[in-house]
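User: hey, got a sec? need Methyltransferase domain-containing protein folded
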Amino acid sequence: MLNEREAESCYLGQFLPVQYHHHMLANNSRMDGFKAAIQRQVFEGAKVLELGGGTGVLSWFAAQSAARVYCVEWNSDMVAEARRLLAMNRHGDRVEVIHADAFEYLPPEPVDVVICEMLHVAMLREKQVELIENFKQRYLEKFGAPLPVFVPEAVVMAVQPLQQAYDFLGYQAPVIQFQPAGVFSADTRELAEPALYSVIDFSQPNAMRIHWEGSFVIEQTATLNALRFVTKSILAVLMETCSTIDWLHDYMVLPLAEPLAVRAGDVLEVSFQYRAGAAITSLQNALQVRRRSHAPVRARHLSLVTG
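Assistant: Yep! Here you go:
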C-alpha cells in the first residue's frame, strides 16, 4: 500500500512507469541539451549526484568524465532498469544506482555537480523546486559551503494570450493542450508577445509560491480563450560567450473558463498564483483575466523566450 508521499507522487507524476522513461530517451531536444550541459559542467574526476535518475542516461553522460556518480531513484522498477541499462554501456560502472527517496538522501561525500530533471511546464506537477531547496538546506548542514553546480542552473517562465481552436473533427473540447515548442499552427493565434513572469535560479533561495500580476496590449481583434505557458530551462550558463545551453519545453495551453472578445489596443490584465509542484488545476483555478479598452502605453513583454 502506498504511503502519503507515494500517493501524491503517483498523482503528480513522480512515480512514472518504465515505458514513459523509455519514451523520454527519444526526446532529442531534451537529450541533446542535457548532454551538452553535463559535458560542459562535469570535469575530469568530478563527483556527481543525480536526483531522480530514471533510466540513468543523464548519470551516464556524467560518467564519461566523472570519477563517481551517485544516481538516486525512488521507483524500484526504474532502479532495476537503470542498473540493467548502465551495465550495457561504457563507464556505466562509474554510476552507483541507489534506491532511495531523493528528499532524504545525501551522498557520503561532497559533490561537484547535481543533476535533477524533475521538470514540467510552469514548474507544475513535478517536485523540482521543492526537492532542490530541500537538498540545499540538508547539504549545507552536512558539508557546508559551497553548494555544487546545478544542472539545470535556472528556469525562465512566461505567459501569452491566445485564441486557440478547440475543434477536434467537429467535436468542441476546450481542454489543456501541449504544443511542440516553436512550431507554427493555424489553430493558434498569438494575441500578444509572451510576458516574463518568473525566473528561478537554483543557486539562490527560491520561494515555493509563484505569483504574477501583469498586463498585455492586445495586437489584433479576436476571441481570447486561452493562455499559453512557456518554460525554458537554462541547463548551463557559458560565461565566456555570454550564452546558455537551453531546453525549451513543450508549450502548455490552458483554456479560459469564459472566452473574452478583445480588440487591437485593448489591455488585458492577468493574474495567477500557484505552488511549484502543484497540480495543473491549481493554476487553472487561480487564473483571473480582465479586459480594459485602448491602452495608451504598451505592456512590457519578453519575445526571446519563444525563440
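Quick note: The two ends are 46 Å apart (CA to CA). Let me know if you need anything else on Methyltransferase domain-containing protein.
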